[in-house]
Specification:
Helix content is 42%, strand content 0%. The chain has one domain (2-36). The protein contains 2 helices and no strands. By secondary structure, the protein is mostly helical. This is IS66 C-terminal element.
Amino acid sequence: MSLIQSAKLNGLEPYAYLKDVLARLPTQKASQVHELLPQHWQPGD
């Protein structure tokens, strides 16, 4: 729930954000996981 609320507070559409993050998570390097946080997230291609 906190990810959804954080996405909203950052002006993101929660469904699109979570869908993209969950798709990227298995291949995201541990050192770059901070890029998936709502305040740093950029939509994928």
